[in-house]
Write a sequence for this structure.
């Protein structure tokens, strides 16, 4: 049984005008059942990596598999089972991550009632 939930093979991202890659080539496997942290200083590439894993940003080289899906080739299938909430959401900036889904749920309930 393969219990890998995330597999990275040489995953890399560069942005124009930068000398160093935003995400240097990464190779790793993250297994189910473990708590894994992604830590580093500002500008280390954490958000860029998360955006690539969520299928929101295409890597320049390498590949990734997230719960069996290629985030770029199978983005629709991945998005059906993956939730991603960035730190800076852009909408309702004053709400916490936990409050945002509650506000959407409240909107849907009001919409169903016609209010």
């Amino acid at each position: 049984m393969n219990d890998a939930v995330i597999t990275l093979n040489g995953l890399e991202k560069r942005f124009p005008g930068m000398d160093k890659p935003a995400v240097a080539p990464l190779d790793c496997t993250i297994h189910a059942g473990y708590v894994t942290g992604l830590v580093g200083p500002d500008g280390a590439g954490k958000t860029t990596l998360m955006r690539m894993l969520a299928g929101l940003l295409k890597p320049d080289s390498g590949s990734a598999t997230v719960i069996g899906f290629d985030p770029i080739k199978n983005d629709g299938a991945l998005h059906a089972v993956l939730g991603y909430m960035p730190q800076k959401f852009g909408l309702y900036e004053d709400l916490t991550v936990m409050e945002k889904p509650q506000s959407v749920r409240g909107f849907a309930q009001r919409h169903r009632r016609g209010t």
